[in-house]
Protein 1
Amino acid sequence: MMAELSISQVSKLYAGGVRAVSDVTLHVGDGEFIVLVGPSGCGKSTLLRMVAGLEDISAGEIAIGGRVVNRLDPAERDIAMVFQNYALYPHMSVRENMAYGLKNRRMPRDEIAARVAEAAQMLELGPYLDRKPRALSGGQRQRVAMGRAVVRQPAAFLFDEPLSNLDAKLRVSMRGEIRKLQKRLGTTALYVTHDQLEAMTLADRLVVLNGGQVEQVGSPLEVYHRPASTFVASFIGAPAMSLLDAHVEGGQVMLAGQALARVARPDGAVTLGLRAEDLHMVAPGQGVALQVDYIEELGAQRLVHGLVEGQALCIALPPGVALPPVLHVGAAPERLHLFDAITGRRFTARTSAQSGALV
Amino acid sequence: MHRTRFFDHLILLLGAAFLVTPVLVAFMTSTHTAADIHMNGLSLMPGGHGVETYHKVLTQRGGFTGEVTGARMLMNSTILGLGFAVGKIVLSMMAAYALVYFRFRFATAIFWMIFTTLLLPLEVRIMPSYQVMSDLHLLNTYTGLIVPLLASATGTFYFRQFFKSVPDELLEAARIDGAGPVRFFIDILVPLSRTMMAAIFIIMFVYGWNQYLWPMLMTTEERFFTLMRGIKSILQVWIGSQIPDYNEAFALAVLAMLPPVAVVVVFQRMFIKGLTESDK
């Protein structure tokens, strides 16, 4: 079954003129895992709920499997949703929870039993089938919620921050399970999260949302290495990319009086983005001077936070290196990210890598 | 944790004695003969006539028509209590469901109108209600006894508050699972409301059971007598030199106490179970 999902020019307007989602267009291929990521209030959940049919679509069109679903009830859209708080029916056993949606569709009893058994086996819920949700741990409840989605064999899975209520360790293992399950079933999935790490690890493609608008769509690495705007740059990746005010002077990107790289741009202010791991220490006299502010020890590496002429900059260094109060740091020219100082959009013309002017 | 000491028990024992003694006195006194009670007053010791007194109040035909027995009155009271409790729960649950889950105009205004009637005691609308029932020729029927009092602001209010506390995701999950409004109500909300229903059942059963003024107005035929009226009518018999049948009145009062006690005991267990196994 082809289960493409297409969202075209969809907007959500609330009474009072608040635009929660504006003009989002997205095409999701069959079996693709798409993660909608953004800070709270960016409209990602609203978008997901519009796909689910829990919110009205103010403008635009949503089609699932080639069928426009704007006017259909959630039950008729051939989707299954996993909620943040699981939303299991507390008075029903695990088995009944999973079977409820099928029962309402008047599926024959033995087929329901077969599907539930299959899902339970897949999710290792066999021993818990006759328990009530309250007798289960958070991770198990989340698995039941997924089982309820799986038994439906829908065209698309919708996940609304399903891991937010779990502790950090469980979140990592459940993340893996969700990914494996989705790949195994080959079901199209739309997943909402505010956690950029979750987004990076799960997604085939990421959709970064900000203020109801799509900032960037791309594979995790694409978004990481070529953020389309300062918003994406600061949102994706930990530690966040350092963004500094710099300027172009005579074809050179200048920061703190140092030329960092050649660039084919007219003179003027730009925003310079630097990833912590792209920076390295250079000999005194070269590079820009970094006034060390504080250090985060992560074990495998240490993050040194400092100031360059009053602007915050973070650099990742191997542990065990002696740290002077002032560091001299540099980066390869092709590792610089340049953004428009006003709009925050990325300059598509890359810094010229052939300059070789290492800082 | 606080350790219970002797003094704590003493207070509890005193409190229990304070509440239980009158009931005990009523029961003990009911086992004496009327003449005995008239001479010696109330008694804490059992007398020797218990069985015959209770047998008499349950089976003796009394009243002007000689039709109504204690058992009949017990049945009438039970019908009234159960009818009230069940009817009020059904009606107020449906009203609260409409108020909470359906978006219609003036829902809040309607809710407050219902809620305001909480302030009005039954007695305020007793005459208009009587008029309506009289016009519908429902006087002297169980329908007339029960139906006019079914609308319950208290019940509607409690169920509304409870439904509001049910997470929205449950409704959304049910919608995705293909449950329509009726399915959601029956499959999800009703089972979740079990403890609430038990609480309301206790309150409303006792309320219906204890009705005195309303049945007296709505029914004139003795076959609709409730226990409350029976007790009253026994004590009214001051014919000539006859002593009122105190023992029978006490026996009826004790009998009248049993069903509400049973209801409270049964449902309280469910109620507490629901509270401790809280799941939401």
Protein 2
Amino acid sequence: MGNSEAREVGEAREAGEVGEAGQARGEVLAMLATYGERRPEEVPESVDSLELAWLIHQIEQRYGRPFDADDEALARMTTVGSVVEVLGELGFGGAG
Amino acid sequence: MAAGIDIPTDPEWVDEVLLAGPDNQVCLVLGEPVDRAGLRRMVAARQQALTAAGLRAGGSVALCLPPSTAFITNLLAAWRIGARAALLDHRLTAFEVEQAIARLAPQYVVRAEHTSGGALRAFHEVQEKIVANPGGQPSETSHALVQLSSGSTGPSKAIGRTASDLIAEIDRYTAIGEGVPRGGERIVSLASMVHVLGLVGGLLYGLHAGARLVLPGRMTAEAILAAVAAGPEPTTLLGVPFHIELLAAVAEPPRLPQLTGMTTGGELVRAQVHDAFVDRYGIRLGNMYGMTELGVIATDLFGAHRPAILPAPGIQMRDDDGELHIAMENSPYVGLVDPARWSDGWLHTKDAGSVEPGTGLVRVRGRRDSQVSIGGLKVDLSEVEHTLAGLPGVEGAVVVYGKAIEAYVVLTPAASLDDVQAGLTERVAPYKRPRAWHVVERLPRTATGKLVRDQSVLSGAR
């Protein structure tokens, strides 16, 4: 059930705003780039556990509220694409 | 040529050195607090289970468990039996575990049957199972602990430490004194307890000294600071440089008067990160230099000698042709005599460095081989490169480290990069895998045909 909900949210976003998704991705890349003094284009697509810990803190500082994702959501956050997806589902990022 | 004679230590050392203390003294907090009476009970239960499975004094067992109460109790139980325990990092792939078991031939393997806990969990709830290994052999040495270190070619190195070696390291922490947590204090450990810093510096020293070992719920900045805030006792953070970066990035940390200092093992952080951390938290930030072979070697727990460090009491160091050597009576390697790693009472660290004659201060200037540190975990790039180059579809490979591990590969005409990546995923643990992949037509070579590893040349080949 969780999966179908996730798909719906993903589809809704795709249908709605391609630009918004691109912006959310840009934000994630910018937050990841602050770890290890990288340029956003140097950030690989895969997200390791150190980067995930870093990213969660950056998200909380950026949006000023706790990022209380459950284990299942965190376990999915292994690529920049899936991070954008989870952030969208939890109402972080972009204009929404 | 045997490197020396090991004298077995009575298994009672576990009770005397680690488990002794008031029944109601809380010694571990992995979620729920565990007092000494509770820990002794759990260790006795695991001892019974391991004995029932057939483990005996002089026997051998491998623990393939994530950080957990189960890891701690099985380890202490194996030692209490007088058996040798080999530690296998739970992040290793099935392929790597299989290779390690073939190499170490433990009689039993303790694995997780069920484990709760997901991404970023600092510890897991584990239901373990004991599996007999039909080809297993009893221990041929008196080592209590065996850990594997990746080797650049051929089989990985097995590093053995006796109970006396471990007790000597615990004593070394005690002798360092100032900056090391004392009895009644807390250690919030962010360092993996499967590796020497978290294992001896956190778990074993903590049990010995009566300093409570606390693991945060998650490895996030907020959870780490919450773990510190959870108790009034003077608290030391133990971790690796990444954790300094993570905590230094917290713009407005809560006031934590109980936090007295942080100690990390591994490479130094950049000066601006060091300064940002000290400025945010107003506490000492200390650095330790250690190796799996010997544990803690040299320290600068107050940042007074930065970037230099001072050998710990009882440690003698020298530089030999630009490489740091440490006096060590016996070779720590099991079943391997490699004069490039240990000879004539000196451990060759493979770290470039120097020892200042007057003061004895030591400068560590990086590896002389292909080992890099990823979040405190050691990765041998040549091991990854050899594995990659041996995969079907790969004609040649070079693995280098810049801001992350990167692979340059030449593929056979029919091969796909996806298949090659999947092949590597089966064989090496996630933290060892390249983060960036570059498929090139040919790998640059020197005039004498050696592969070039210089990244500016390699990126030109893309």
